[in-house]
Design a protein that fits this description.
single chain; 264 residues; alpha/beta; Rossmann fold; 2 domains; four-stranded mixed beta sheet; 9 helices
Length: 264
């Protein structure tokens, strides 16, 4: 639906045919108290057979005329009331960059095109600046409308963007998932990766166990551990791999962590 008051607003009266047309938004005229356009949003995916959509995109149409110094307080009062209807859900502001001057002469209209564009840009910038200073409005979408005949396009695009299901974030990579790369001879065999991730709780534990093994042959490394108990515990944890993984693979893993520790 679109509000019947748009017919009395020179800034947007010309867009009404495209709102009604089947090739446009195909919406009907109605008396809307708080906003200018209400567009049903399709459900993706369909979870019921109810043809009536459960969501509605509500739009408020503004022009540079609404951003004048005298009208600004009333404009923001209307915006705040508009946003409070749904708590900011499925709402957006359409800001026209074209100023309406219905009583200008033909000469003025020809000479004022560039000035009108600047007025529209200033109004858009002012609206953004005002939104950023108001926490309850800072996240409300503002859709800039360069030309009135582009209204249907930006409304459809925005409606599709908020109707489309959001992709699920991919699972975070665990530190242990990097085990395959923790060897001078890339990559580690999958069996070694699986067994190591089952035995050790973290990459730090793997490094400690590797140093414990090396400490047996280089006594000077024992100072890295607080006690013999820690040394033996780490050594035994790494020793579980012996007999299940190729000896060269184990040695390669130990070499990686010993060298990495030395660099740090």
């Amino acid at each position: 639906m679109f509000c019947t008051t748009l017919r009395r607003r020179s800034s947007f009266a010309s867009v009404i045919p495209s709102l009604i047309a089947p090739s446009g938004l195909a919406i009907k005229e109605s008396q809307l108290e708080t906003h200018d356009i209400a567009l049903p949003l399709p459900d993706f995916p369909k979870i019921t057979h109810d043809p009536k959509p459960k969501r509605t995109l509500r739009l408020l149409l503004l022009s540079p005329n609404n951003m004048s110094e005298t009208k600004l307080p009333g404009t923001f009062s209307r915006i705040q009331h508009f946003v409070s209807l749904t708590g900011g859900l499925d709402v957006a502001i359409v800001m026209s960059l074209s100023a309406s001057k219905p009583f200008s002469s033909a000469r003025d209209l020809l000479n004022a095109t560039q000035a009108d564009e600047m007025d529209g840009i200033r109004s858009y910038a002012l609206l953004q600046a005002e939104f950023m200073t108001r926490s309850e409005l800072s996240w409300i979408p503002i859709l800039p409308l360069a030309k009135l005949d582009g209204l249907v396009g930006i409304v459809k695009t925005h409606a599709q963007s908020i109707s489309r299901p959001r992709p699920k974030p991919s699972s975070a990579v665990r530190p242990l998932d990097m085990l395959a790369h923790c060897t001078p001879d890339l990559p580690l065999p999958s069996l070694a990766v699986d067994l190591t991730s089952d035995i050790f709780t973290s990459l730090g534990h793997v490094a400690q166990a590797a140093l414990a093994h090396r400490a047996l042959s280089t006594p000077e490394s024992e100072g890295l551990f607080s006690s013999d108990d820690v040394l033996q515990s780490s050594r035994s944890a790494f020793g579980v791999l012996t007999g299940q993984v190729d000896k060269d693979v184990i040695e390669s893993m130990i070499e990686f962590w010993v060298e990495d520790w030395a660099i740090e």
